[in-house]
Design brief:
Layout (H helix, E strand, L loop, with lengths): L1 E4 L6 H15 L5 E11 L2 E4 L4 H8 L3 E9 L10 H12 L4 E4 L4 H4 L9 E5 L9 H11 L3 E6 L2 H9 L7 E3 L13 H11 L7 E5 L8 H14 L4 E5 L8 H10 L4 H7 E5 L4 H6 L3 E4 L9 H8 L3 E5 L4 H5 L4 E3 L3 H24 L6 H18 L12
Parallel strand pairs: 1-2, 1-5, 2-4, 5-6, 6-7, 7-8, 9-10, 9-12, 10-11, 12-13, 13-14
Antiparallel strand pairs: 2-3
């Protein structure tokens, strides 16, 4: 199997996909990864492939990871590919029975003429195909010529959105996201240790917001809610983590200044900017609430699932499959700061009462279930593929 990434950078889709590759490798499949970009500049953060947690986990497990060496400076994949880039892609695809495309963006490369023809399975992780620009057209083109044999949707909202956008229903398969339940679990010792590290009182109510700094995440709404909540809960703390969630991001600091105008002391006391963390299981275990304020694009937000599995109560806006994910174990709110702040307080107060329901939901979000479903689909794709003899390579 060959997985093709647009690049390695902080985000739920890459975390999920990399974990799937690791799980399939553990199960005996042979996997390689090709990344279009070796370095990505986004969310006010320079993110090098070799520094990325997913890259390190894959290579440590023996998965080969190579890159075309491009540097990403803006949205979308440039139209042109060089001869050496196409030759590298041809070598990678020639050795694969099935190709996985992490979202539809890499299809701009995989649709290039002259590459070995292999069945492609596209892994879709959003609910807004209309916002994916030319990538949606690339997906439709790959479907029309028979290259794409299946699309894995991480949520029902993804399947509905892509079906409405013109993708044939029989190609769309829903495999919900799952997480490592041994890693993401309630843990009193982790809770105490992380709070001690951050200087947070053991009894203080804590909200965690795990997201990259992007418009879809609606950071201004989160900050407005944080101001309202911190004003009424003086002992509360709001932790912001993810790419761009640092004081070095001028966009974020401007958002904070706007949201806390006239109350800078409240922000200084109650907000903590933690940037990209590699210990999310500790942050979630130390928190009482995991917050999501996204306005669009979400499908099955990984932060909600990871946070829930660690015992944090999810409070989310109604986007993608969020309402279905938190049903019975969390709260859905209107995109209004006061409503969100009130929901955070209700979630903190009901955390102990919701603990049994959260515990009962764990099997539903199992990594084992997710990987087994991917393995079955990929086995079918490989079995149905007719692999022609390779022609003599043509010069690019």
């Amino acid at each position: 199997m060959l997985s093709v990434y647009e690049g390695f950078f902080s985000g739920g889709a890459r975390i999920v996909h990399s974990d799937i590759v690791l799980g399939l490798t553990e199960g005996g499949q042979r996997h390689q990864v090709l990344s279009l970009h070796g370095e990505v500049h986004r969310e006010a953060t320079r993110q090098r492939m070799t520094d990325d947690t997913c890259y390190r986990a894959l290579t440590a497990a023996g998965v080969g990871v190579t890159s075309l060496g491009r540097t990403f400076h803006g949205p979308g994949v440039p139209a042109g590919f060089t001869g050496p880039e196409l030759a590298e892609t041809a070598r990678a695809t020639a050795g694969a029975d099935v190709v996985l495309s992490l979202k539809e963006q890499p299809l701009a490369l995989l649709n290039q003429g002259g590459l070995p023809r292999r069945p492609v399975v596209v892994c879709l992780h959003r609910s807004d195909p209309e916002n994916q620009g030319a990538a949606l057209d690339e997906l439709k083109a790959a479907i029309a010529d028979g290259t794409v044999v299946a699309c894995v949707c991480c949520a029902e909202s993804t399947r509905a959105a892509y079906r409405a956008a013109g993708v044939p229903a029989d190609l769309l398969h829903v495999i919900p996201n799952g997480v490592d339940l041994a890693r993401f679990r309630p843990d009193a010792a982790r809770r105490r240790a992380l709070r001690a590290e951050l200087g947070i009182d053991p009894a203080a109510p804590v909200v965690v917001f795990a997201a990259r700094y992007d418009g879809m995440k609606n950071v201004p709404l989160l900050l407005a809610a944080a101001r309202a909540w911190l004003a009424r809960v003086p002992e509360g703390r709001v932790l912001l983590c993810g790419a761009g969630m640092t004081a070095a991001n001028s966009g974020l600091t401007a958002d904070i200044a706007t949201a806390f105008a006239g109350a800078a002391g409240l922000a200084d006391r109650g907000l903590r900017l933690l940037g990209v963390r590699r210990d999310m299981e500790l942050l979630y275990a130390a928190s009482d609430v995991v917050a999501l304020t996204s306005a669009w694009g979400e499908a099955a937000p990984l932060c909600l699932i990871e946070g829930m599995m660690c015992g944090a109560v999810p409070v989310a806006t109604d986007v993608g499959d969020s309402a279905a994910i938190v049903a019975g174990v969390g709260l859905v709110t209107d995109p209004d700061p006061e409503a969100i702040a009130a929901a955070w307080s209700r979630a903190v107060a009901s955390r102990a009462d919701l603990a049994p329901a959260l515990a009962a939901s764990r099997e539903r979000f199992s990594r084992t279930r997710m990987i087994a479903s991917y393995a079955a689909l990929l086995d079918r794709a490989a079995a149905n593929a007719t692999r022609p003899a390779l022609p003599e390579p043509e010069p690019f």
